[in-house]
């Protein structure tokens, strides 16, 4: 039985890369029926797109998103840096699917400001080649990490995350994340928002912040490479959904097999865009 959810936010899926956990995401999406689905950037990794690598499990995510938009779900595709090519289609709308750069959502008497967050990243804004190189390096790191974790699992040992170790222990990485969150919160308070929701840094988070100018709640949806997380808003309450905490009850039942989008169709679209 599918869960009814008022609002779901996912980001940083990076379809088209080896690190993407598309099968796990499909199980999650097939378990919910959201009134609104917000795809908060870096859903398709156009930067690293390869004609030779886009498995069926990745294409199923695209099909599932389309199926949501053709039924009763409002779907917003907010562009990020890895799928910035779609920004040329900003304000494009097809049925209940809309492409945009940011989104403001009324939640009762409160307001949420949703955007990817790459605007705060100087390397993305001014040294795109460096950011793309970093993206390829991250994908390689995840590939190596997956191999190591496969070996650890066979030895009955706990999985290990190279990137989380780096983020948690390298001072510059910790400072970058703290600065990112602080900047997002200060801007949201100045613009009278109750919530500011980002992606980009692959760090699921939910925390309250108060300054002399006001207060705001910062939320980050994380990613579907390492954390396998999403944000859910239902009955006036926010929660971070972690796949690992629910994987035993999520099945592949109810997975839709749509035939209106073939790989060749998708390849033609993505090639034209990039």
Question: Could you characterize what this model shows?
Answer:
- With 274 residues, the chain is of the alpha/beta class.
- It has eight helices and twelve strands.
- The protein has a seven-stranded mixed sheet.
- Strand 4 (93-94) and strand 5 (97-100) form a beta hairpin.
- Helix 1 (22-29) runs parallel beside helix 2 (56-69) and helix 5 (162-169) packs across helix 6 (171-190).
- The longest helix has 27 residues, at 128-154.
- Mean pLDDT is 83; it is low at 122-130.
The H-and-E topology, N to C, reads as EHEHEEEEEHHHHEEEEEHH
Oligomeric organization of the protein chains: single chain
| Strand order in space, largest sheet | 4-5-3-2-1-11-12
| Class computed from helices, strands and strand pairing | alpha/beta
Tell me roughly what share of residues is in helical segments: 25-40%
Main pleated-sheet profile: 7 strands, mixed
The N- to C-terminal Cα distance equals 39 Å
Work out the radius of gyration.
18 Å
Shape: globular
Strand percent estimate: 15-25%
- Average pLDDT, rounded to a whole number, is 83
Stretches with pLDDT under 50, minimum 5 residues: 122-130
- DSSP summary: helix tally: 8
Strands, count: 12
Task: Give the topology.
Blueprint (H helix, E strand, L loop, with lengths): L2 E8 L11 H8 L2 E9 L15 H14 L4 E5 L14 E2 L2 E4 L2 E5 L2 E5 L7 H5 L1 H27 L7 H8 L1 H20 L4 E4 L6 E7 L2 E7 L8 E6 L2 E6 H4 L16 H11 L1
Parallel strand pairs: 1-2, 2-3, 3-5, 7-8, 8-10
Antiparallel strand pairs: 1-11, 4-5, 6-7, 9-10, 11-12
């Amino acid at each position: 039985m599918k869960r009814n959810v008022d609002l779901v936010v996912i980001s940083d899926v990076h379809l088209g890369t080896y690190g993407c956990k598309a099968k796990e995401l499909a199980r999650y999406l097939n378990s919910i029926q959201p009134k609104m689905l917000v795809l908060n950037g870096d859903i398709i990794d156009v930067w690293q797109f390869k004609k030779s690598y886009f498995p069926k499990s990745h294409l199923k995510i695209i099909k599932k998103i389309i199926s949501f938009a053709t039924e009763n779900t409002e779907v917003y595709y907010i562009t990020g840096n890895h799928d910035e090519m779609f920004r040329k289609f900003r304000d494009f709308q097809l049925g209940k699917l809309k492409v945009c750069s940011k989104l403001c959502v009324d939640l009762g008497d409160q307001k949420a400001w949703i955007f990817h967050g790459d605007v705060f990243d100087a390397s993305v804004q001014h040294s795109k080649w460096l950011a793309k190189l970093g993206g390829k390096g991250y994908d390689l790191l995840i590939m190596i990490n997956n191999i190591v974790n496969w070996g650890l699992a066979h030895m009955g040992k706990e999985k290990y995350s190279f990137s989380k170790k780096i983020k948690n222990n390298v001072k510059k990485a910790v400072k970058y994340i703290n600065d990112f969150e602080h900047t997002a919160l200060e801007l949201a308070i100045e613009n009278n928002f109750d919530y500011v929701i980002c992606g980009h840094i692959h760090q699921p988070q939910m925390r309250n912040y108060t300054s002399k100018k006001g207060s705001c709640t910062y939320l980050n949806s994380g990613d579907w490479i390492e954390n396998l997380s999403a944000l859910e808003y239902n009955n006036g309450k926010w929660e971070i959904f972690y796949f690992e905490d629910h994987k035993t009850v999520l099945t592949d039942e109810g997975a839709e097999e749509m035939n209106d989008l073939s790989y060749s169709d998708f390849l033609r679209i993505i090639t034209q865009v990039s």
